[in-house]
Automatic annotation (TrEMBL):
Domain Xylose isomerase-like TIM barrel: 100-291
PANTHER family: L-RHAMNOSE ISOMERASE (PTHR30268:SF0)
Lineage of origin: Bacteria, Pseudomonadati, Pseudomonadota, Gammaproteobacteria, Alteromonadales
Keywords, comma-separated and alphabetical: Isomerase, Manganese, Metal-binding
Keyword rRNA processing listed: no
The name this protein goes by in its record: L-rhamnose catabolism isomerase
Molecular function, one GO term: isomerase activity
Species this chain originates from: Alteromonas alba
Pfam families with a match to the protein in the record: AP_endonuc_2
Length: 431
């Protein structure tokens, strides 16, 4: 297997932390045993947990005002893949990448797939981009893509999505994620129903092009770039479209795409109930689609979402297999560091949700014991499961302290030498 970070560096760093980790792990094991929880079973589940890295997250994002790129950032999809391999080697929980087209320009898909295979990285959900025009594009998306009043613009957008399926097939992916910025900026600008009808008709064409073993995931978002109305503005429009299109179409929940204070975990529960939960874009948010690091602001919300997911697994909900992906924009941090940290924070929420005593919780719910029910959740959330996460990483050959190893490897400054920046280069793809 091809590696980007010297294994000896990780091993040396791990050896220096192992005694402390073993002591913390044993103490936590004793504590959990008193609650009849087998720490080893939890650690195995933690080790199995994987979340995909977004190819576009490996570069500094930026806002519509400015972008402040760091040195040594990836300049193409192969270099993005290199950084994803680093993130996986250190975190042990990100063995896949979700690409975005045409931001990820690929001449030779088999070479890209082979390189990823060598790093032990899989390609997962392919994201299409019909929210901006590409140079020389014949029919503009200024007034929308799949719902545009212009048939030619709609056809272009449909064809791009079909092309994305083709790219994904060459990479071994099994789903297409569709987010469009279509909408309006002025009341009256758009006929709501006709626009939604055009969107659905376009999506039907894409759905017909899905291979048998593929799924299509629709991402809703309340606003931006359209500031008055957005075509798939919330999970209601999302599930309506997914139901209309068929069983291979599901809804994708991006945590940043809701109004502040929205009960996202309840949306997740509804989507699970109707077999329409396709996956997630994890990030955090205070105001709108801030794309902040996962769990950095609302770790309890993230835990409550995982509480629903683990509950569905516990109940052996049929056809339940949501795709976990990050979708973040890093403005002031090293993207690799943020992605490592975020992946671990999502894994942390999953592990804490495993600690909830489901039967006890169901009992409190039946008895309408609100306080004990809420404490059942809060007690799990309040436990520090860091030793479990660190032990899962250690046993897989990843780093007990991934950020410390990353920094001591000098990876970014090495990349700064190997990846000189073209002063005329545009952004990494984040709008
Ligand atoms: C839209 C979005 C969507 C895009 C990505 C770059 O805000 O969340 O997932 O593909 O950002
Ligand atoms: Mn997203
Ligand atoms: Mn977003």
């Amino acid at each position: 297997m091809l590696r980007r970070i010297d294994e000896a560096l990780i091993n040396r760093a791990n050896q220096s932390l192992l005694n402390e980790l073993e002591a913390d792990y044993a103490a936590l094991g004793d504590k959990l045993a008193r609650q009849n929880i087998d720490i080893e079973a939890i650690t195995r589940s933690a080790a199995d947990f994987q979340i995909a890295v977004p190819s576009w997250g490996t570069g500094t994002g930026g806002t519509r005002f400015a972008r402040f790129p760091g040195t040594g950032e990836p300049r193409n999809i192969f270099e993005k893949l290199e950084d994803c391999a680093v993130i996986n080697e250190l975190s042990g929980c990100t063995d896949s990448v979700s690409p975005h087209f045409p931001w990820d320009k690929v001449d030779d898909f088999s070479e890209l797939k082979q390189t990823a295979d060598e790093y032990g990285i899989k390609w997962v959900s392919v994201n299409s981009n019909t929210f901006q025009d590409q140079p020389g594009q014949e029919h503009s998306y200024k007034y929308g893509s799949l719902s545009n009043t212009s048939k030619e613009a709609r056809e272009l957008a449909i064809q791009h999505n079909l092309d994305c399926i083709g790219y994904g097939q060459q990479l071994g992916a099994k789903s297409l994620t569709v987010w469009v910025g279509d909408g309006s900026n002025h009341p009256g600008q758009q006929h709501f129903q006709r626009a939604f009808e055009r969107y659905l008709a376009s999506m039907e064409q894409i759905y017909k092009g899905l291979p048998d073993d593929w799924e299509m995931h629709i991402e809703h978002k309340m606003f931006e770039p359209a500031f008055y109305s957005t075509i798939i503005q919330d999970w209601g429009s999302n599930i309506l479209a997914a139901m209309q299109l068929g069983p291979k179409c599901k809804s994708l929940v991006d945590l940043g795409h809701h109004a502040p204070n929205t009960n996202i975990e309840m949306i997740v529960s509804r989507l699970i109930q109707f077999k329409k939960l396709g996956g997630f874009h994890f990030n955090d948010s205070k105001y709108g689609d801030d794309d902040l690091d996962s769990g950095s602001l609302h770790p309890y919300q993230q835990f409550l979402i995982f509480n629903e997911l683990v509950d569905a697994e516990y109940r052996k909900e049929q056809d339940f297999n949501p795709a976990y992906m990050l979708d973040q924009s890093h403005n002031v941090t090293d993207p690799a560091e943020s992605l490592i940290n975020s992946a671990i924070e999502v894994q942390r929420s999953f592990v804490k949700a495993l600690l909830v005593n489901r039967e006890a919780l169901y009992g409190y719910q039946e008895d309408n014991d609100a306080l004990m029910a809420s404490l059942e959740l809060k007690n799990a959330f309040n436990l520090d499961v860091s030793p479990i996460l660190a032990m899962a990483r250690y046993r897989k050959g990843a780093a007990i302290n991934p950020l410390a190893v990353y920094r001591s490897s000098g990876y970014r400054s090495k990349m700064a030498e190997l990846r000189p920046r073209d002063p005329n280069a545009t952004g990494s793809g984040i709008v």
